[in-house]
């Protein structure tokens, strides 16, 4: 930030550093191991009194001198040059903290040069003792150079106590110093063996060449005895958070880890091959291959070491963006542009979001990402995200994927960067919120009912306030079309009775919705996804758009499960509230006993597109489009190592609950996987930049100006939002993740989530999705009006039987039978027709309030009653009389 940086958008500074540094490190390790090789090989010549070996050593030293002193020296200077241009802040920090270390290293380097030059040029004039002393001194100085540089390199990975003390020795003798030194020493010896082959394969005497090849192979293989244990020690010296980030999360690591492992195997195999009888040509080809493989081996190791530091260039001290960790808070408050010395844009204004975003990209992204470049290109990394998705990504950057630094800067700067990437680079619309949708109300009639003559009252409700459908069957399925209706029929009288015997309940959908197969591909893929070959327009439990209910004694109700109703009318309109007509007849005579209607709320308005791009699938209104679905699969594959996109392209789309258990579908999933709800909410809570009910509406069909607006009951009317019952997204996710704390990934997803009301995560109560939900009686204690400070925060129903949709009153009447489904509690105000959800109370009592409210006991009892038998506080006037003055209603709630 405080230095000008050489920008190379297509190549990237990191790649340029790697190109020079890996070559230099390769040769530098040769300088250490090769010094030992020369010393011990010359000693071997004296021990065996072999002029051939001495002659070999002399020639090898010439090759060695040119490679290490000339090429190594040039690349060494090249490293200083390139890191000063690409990472000047980190370079400055290393110089200032280790200035005496660098000075000492130059003294040792001078000793190397002197010893090697004297050794080579005076080779034939030195005594045995002098040659041994000089060759040993060269090796010693070279190893001491490694000793110094290793301290500084290992400091960048594990600075240890230096972070608190700033002490030179604490930084130098850091936690990974010794294992790193041992590993590099053994690696240097191994590399010496590789380069020993180079001069050996050009020997003319086949017998001597064969002997020296075997000798070089021992240099190649023996160090493995120390390389492997020191490498394991080195690995476990790295803090666990770095290991997880580098080796479990960072997708780049896999390539270099594979390169390192494969190169290790090939070096071993080719080394064995060179000890066998083979022609000179084969030996030379194998040697050339070994040198290249050895370079790849060193590159794989160095890249893994670099990646293990991410998101820092100096762990826990300086980010890869050259921003000090200690400055992050200040820069997020004041702005990165205002504090950057080398930028012409100093703040974000309405006139310069693209320019400002481009400058922020240079400051925070270009250190790791190229632009249409050769490595870590930002274009494919972000092409699957919309502008809103890009903001969300930046909001969550560094939280789950800890190998990236968190975004540092103001909210305006974050928005500007998102605008530059999504709008400037990808030409996507820079629109934050979903566009308002104009709903045309649909008239519906109320079935006839004569309270004086009717013998029965029929109560019907949907088991959920809204059933969501992904409608993306060629790619994946979250939830299929599967609405469930329940019903209770009451024989009216002074003592009304719930009846079940000799009753037949039938249902049929309103015209225009009878043929959902014409509007969805569910039936084309049902067999592949659910393993069930279903007739068109028949759901997973064998029910169609018309048919019969079954009596369920456990629920004390009639029930028809998984009706495959869709929100698409044959006339092309979108209506997420189709009406079903239900008739009760005497099963013996066929006499019509009662008839009513009920809404089956079902929507395909899943907001995946808001972040993942793409349009709506159906007439620009709803449904997960092919583009959105494929974007989701590609991201899932990239982040989780799956191949869902390829499978779907081959005609094998997957059910999300096939891997992630989901109580909503009764799916067990795969062992070790988190509940689908825990995974989805846990992941997105780390990235969602919006708060409150806005966050919920980005995914669920609850957005106040959306296509569905599913929160239509009395709670919504009086200002109760999603988060008042289900908690803010972070808290909601924490409850689900804590219920899955034993599953891999749950801890990682929880790490950066902060409760909004609880003091800490320990106070969050775990729960299971669909089984533990908010309990009405938490706020409505004793069925009374909620206190002004009432909250359902962090309180969950204990068992499935305690859920509102399952619970009954003291007379066996289901709560939902009188109050309607969750999110549509009477009096409801449906956006597709004000009283579309209030059909039954209007039919039976002429008012849109809960059945039997306002002391209207005669609905069932045929006369006024005096005792609140159904539940306490039942026998009273309804508190929330419908009014156009919603604020007055809210005040009275």
Task: Please provide a written account of the structure.
With 893 residues, the protein is an alpha+beta fold. 47% of the residues lie in helices and 8% in strands. It contains 34 helices and 17 strands. Strands 3, 6, 7, 10 and 11 form a five-stranded antiparallel β-sheet that branches. A hairpin with a 3-residue loop joins strand 15 and strand 16 (622-624). It is elongated and about 130 Å long.
Give structural attributes.
alpha+beta, 893 residues, disordered C terminus, four-stranded antiparallel beta sheet, elongated, 34 helices, five-stranded antiparallel beta sheet
User: What structural category characterises the helix and strand content?
Assistant: alpha+beta
The percent range for strand residues is 5-15%
Largest sheet: 5 strands, antiparallel
**Percentage of helical residues?**
40-55%
Shape: elongated
Instruction: Compute the average pLDDT.
Output: 92
Q: Which residues form runs of ≥5 with pLDDT under 50?
A: 884-893
Helical stretch count?
34
Radius of gyration: 37 Å
What oligomeric state do these chains adopt?
single chain
* Alpha-carbon distance between the two ends: 55 Å
Any chance you could write out the topology, listing elements then pairs?
Blueprint: H1 13-48, H2 51-86, H3 88-97, H4 99-121, H5 128-157, H6 162-165, H7 168-172, H8 177-200, H9 206-221, H10 224-237, H11 240-249, H12 251-275, H13 280-309, E1 312-314, E2 318-319, H14 328-334, H15 336-339, H16 353-364, H17 378-382, H18 387-396, H19 411-425, E3 456-462, E4 467-468, E5 476-477, E6 483-491, E7 497-499, E8 503-509, H20 522-530, E9 546-548, E10 550-552, E11 557-563, E12 579-586, E13 592-599, E14 602-603, H21 609-612, E15 616-618, E16 622-624, H22 626-640, H23 644-649, E17 654-655, H24 676-685, H25 692-697, H26 714-717, H27 722-726, H28 729-738, H29 746-750, H30 776-779, H31 815-819, H32 839-845, H33 858-861, H34 886-892
Parallel strand pairs: 4-14, 5-17
Antiparallel strand pairs: 1-2, 3-6, 6-7, 6-11, 8-9, 8-12, 10-11, 12-13, 15-16
Helix pairs in contact: 1-2, 1-5, 1-8, 1-13, 2-3, 2-4, 4-5, 5-8, 8-9, 8-10, 8-13, 9-12, 11-12, 11-13, 12-13, 16-19, 18-19, 24-28
């Amino acid at each position: 930030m405080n230095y000008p940086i050489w920008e190379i958008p297509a190549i990237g500074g990191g790649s340029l550093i790697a190109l020079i540094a890996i070559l230099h490190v390769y040769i530098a390790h040769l300088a250490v191991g090769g010094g030992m090789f020369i010393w011990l090989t010359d000693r071997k010549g004296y021990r065996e009194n072999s002029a051939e070996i001495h002659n070999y050593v002399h020639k090898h030293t010439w090759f060695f001198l040119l490679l290490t002193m000339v090429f190594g020296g040039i690349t060494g200077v090249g490293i200083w040059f390139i890191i000063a241009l690409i990472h000047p802040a980190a370079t400055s920090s290393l110089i200032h903290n280790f200035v005496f270390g660098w000075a000492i290293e130059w003294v040792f380097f001078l000793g190397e040069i002197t010893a090697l030059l004297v050794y080579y040029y005076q080779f034939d004039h030195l005594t045995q003792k002098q040659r041994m002393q000089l060759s040993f001194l060269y090796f010693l100085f070279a190893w001491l150079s490694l000793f110094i540089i290793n301290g500084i390199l290992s400091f960048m990975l594990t600075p240890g106590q230096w972070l608190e003390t700033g002490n030179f020795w604490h930084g130098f003798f850091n936690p990974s110093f010794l294992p790193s030194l041992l590993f590099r020493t053994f690696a240097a010896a191994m590399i010496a063996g590789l380069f020993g082959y180079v001069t050996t394969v050009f020997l003319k005497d086949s017998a001597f060449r064969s002997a020296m090849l075997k000798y070089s192979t021992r240099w190649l293989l023996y160090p493995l005895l120390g390389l492997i244990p020191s490498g394991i020690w080195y690995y476990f010296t790295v803090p666990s958070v770095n290991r997880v980030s580098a080796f479990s999360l960072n997708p780049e690591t896999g390539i270099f880890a594979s390169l390192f492992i494969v190169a290790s195997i090939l070096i071993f195999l080719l080394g064995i091959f060179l000890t066998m009888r083979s022609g000179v040509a084969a030996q030379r080809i194998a040697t050339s291959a070994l040198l290249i493989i050895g370079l790849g081996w060193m590159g794989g190791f160095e890249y893994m070491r670099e990646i293990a530091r991410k998101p820092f260039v100096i762990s826990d001290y300086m980010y890869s963006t050259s921003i000090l960790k200690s400055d992050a808070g200040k820069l997020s408050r004041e702005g990165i542009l205002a504090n950057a010395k080398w930028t012409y844009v100093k703040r974000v204004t309405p006139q310069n979001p693209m320019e400002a975003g481009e400058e922020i990209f240079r400051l925070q992204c270009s250190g790791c990402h190229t632009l249409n470049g050769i490595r870590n290109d930002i274009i494919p990394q972000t092409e699957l995200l919309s502008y809103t998705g890009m903001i969300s990504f930046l909001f969550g950057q560094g939280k789950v994927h800890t190998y990236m630094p968190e975004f540092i800067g103001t909210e305006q700067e974050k928005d500007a960067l998102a605008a530059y990437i999504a709008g400037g680079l990808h030409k996507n619309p820079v629109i934050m919120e979903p566009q308002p949708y104009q709903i045309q109300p649909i008239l519906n009639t109320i079935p006839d009912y004569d309270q004086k003559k009717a013998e029965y009252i029929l109560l019907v409700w949907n088991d959920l306030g809204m059933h969501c459908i992904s409608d993306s069957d060629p790619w994946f399925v979250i939830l299929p079309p599967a609405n469930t209706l329940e019903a209770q029929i009451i024989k009216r009288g002074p003592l009304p009775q719930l009846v079940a015997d000799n009753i037949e309940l039938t249902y049929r959908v309103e015209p225009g919705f009878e043929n959902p197969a014409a509007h969805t591909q569910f039936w084309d893929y049902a067999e592949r996804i659910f393993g069930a070959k279903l007739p068109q327009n028949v759901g997973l439990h064998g029910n169609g758009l018309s048919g019969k209910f079954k009596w369920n004694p456990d629920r004390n109700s009639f029930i028809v499960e998984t009706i495959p109703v869709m929100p698409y009318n044959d006339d092309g309109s979108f209506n997420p509230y189709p009406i079903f007509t239900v008739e009760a007849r005497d099963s013996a005579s066929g006499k019509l006993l009662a008839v009513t209607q009920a809404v089956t709320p079902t929507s395909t308005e899943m907001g995946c597109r808001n972040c993942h791009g793409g349009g709506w699938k159906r007439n620009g209104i709803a449904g997960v489009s092919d583009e959105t679905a494929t974007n989701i699969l590609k991201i899932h594959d990239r982040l989780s190592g799956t191949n869902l996109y390829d499978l779907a392209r081959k005609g094998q789309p997957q059910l999300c609950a096939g891997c992630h258990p989901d109580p909503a579908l009764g799916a067990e999933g795969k062992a070790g996987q988190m509940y689908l709800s825990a995974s989805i909410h846990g992941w997105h809570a780390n990235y969602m930049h919006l708060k409150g009910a806005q966050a919920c509406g980005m995914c669920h069909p609850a957005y106040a100006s959306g296509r569905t607006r599913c929160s239509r009951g009395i709670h919504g009317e009086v200002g109760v939002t999603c988060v008042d019952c289900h908690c803010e997204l972070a808290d909601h996710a924490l409850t689900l993740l804590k219920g899955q704390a034993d599953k891999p990934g749950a801890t990682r997803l929880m790490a950066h989530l902060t409760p909004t009301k609880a003091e800490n995560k320990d106070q969050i109560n775990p729960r299971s999705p669909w089984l533990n939900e908010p309990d009405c009686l938490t706020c409505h204690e004793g069925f009374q009006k909620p206190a002004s400070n009432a909250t359902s925060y962090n309180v969950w129903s204990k068992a499935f039987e305690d859920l509102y949709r399952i619970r009954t009153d003291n007379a066996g009447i289901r709560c939902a039978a009188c109050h309607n489904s969750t999110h549509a509690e009477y009096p409801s105000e449906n956006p597709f027709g004000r009283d579309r959800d209030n059909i039954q109370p209007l039919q039976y009592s002429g008012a849109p309030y809960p059945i039997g409210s306002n002391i209207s006991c005669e609905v069932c009892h045929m006369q006024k009653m005096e005792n609140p038998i159904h539940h306490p506080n039942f026998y009273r006037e309804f508190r929330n009389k419908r009014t156009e003055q919603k604020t007055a209603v809210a005040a009275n709630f």
